[in-house]
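ugh ok fine here u go
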Amino acid sequence: MAHAAPKRNTGGVIREHHLPPLKVTDLEPAGGTRASGAPAAGAGAKQVALVMVAVLAAVLLGGSLAGRAPVEQPRHRLAFDEPSPASVEARVEPGAGESAAGLSASEPARPPEHIPDGWKWRTVGPLRGRQGNIAVWTGSEVIYWGGDRPGRAPEGAAYDPRADRWRRISRSPLTNRTDAGAVWTGREVLVFGGVNGGGRQRDGAAYDPARDRWRPIAEAPLSGRIPLAVAWSGTEMLVVGSRGYGLYDGLQEAAAYDPARDVWRPLPAVPIQINEGASVWTGSELVVYGKFLDRQRGVQGPDGRAKGSALDPVTGHWRDLPPAPLSGQSIALAWNGSELIGWDHNRYAAAYDRLSNAWLTLPDLPLEGRDCLPRATSAGETAFATHCGQAALFDRDRWVWEKVEAPATAVDPPVWTGDGLVLWLAPSGRPDDGTWFRPMR
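structure:
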């Protein structure tokens, strides 16, 4: 690889506090060190203080961890990804059953005062505020379905960015849920798993946008779960592992679903136990990286680095990958067509080169440290990083990150359409609610 940057020392301690509910994340302040084999400090304040004293002493004696001095950053508690209640109940219109909710009276009628450079603002659409929904590009529309808070009926809608047009979609045979896995097959959106008030779900369904019809899919040979990784291989939906904290989570089994025959087949289990992480499809392999965390998001074991493995669905073989020089507690991945680009909540970044089977250090993301989980979007030949209302693009030619503007309340990653990014900020009463589009061609 021509642009390889010098490798940096990845020694250090990773620390994160308990993850509050509803995606309000309380992470280590920015300026921490690269992930290493050092144990994560998940004990009480006394142990944390001892670690901080040790680190400070090492710096004062003439060195700094990972080649950088510790930087004190104020802690942030960001809760803007939790939609606030609408001031007026949504109007219900006759139509497609559960998806027939009208527009809320609080929907923005005009663009916000500030339009981030490179973005176009459009109306928010027919769905109420929610989180944990699926968002899948079909080649002409983004399909949004599910999410929202427990107890509410599921709703779905499709957005066409070229025509700037929303439409409601028909009723799903599934119960409402959050954090389901979803892929586009070229004909249908496949949905599997997720969680709701009834627990973790093990059923799925397929939606055909051309006919606006759903169908249930065959019963899976998997238990109910929030999938750790879901990908479309070209012929099958791959479902791998399970996401969730605690000793009884981190299921390792995997399976593949063939929509043409409506059948599942078992796949070899993930060779490493991961219950928090990220994944990406490279065109031939499903790559999974992450870590096994306890209920306080602490690392189990002495090594804080993200561990990985790659599945070839044709042979059914998993191959071990080298540990990433990134935190296993919070990692995001994207594929730029030739390299795997990863980064963590400390804004450290690295690239995995398949030919050399090695990770190469990249420049840090030029973003402020905020208590938010990292998010990434594979966007053609680049990677788009989202971090609590901030964003950056990876330039593969210059091997650097470029900071770009983003809507101030952006938390979830946008959807890549092939020629741009669609970011839906659901109705929440905030000034930049709406459907945002960033052209990329």
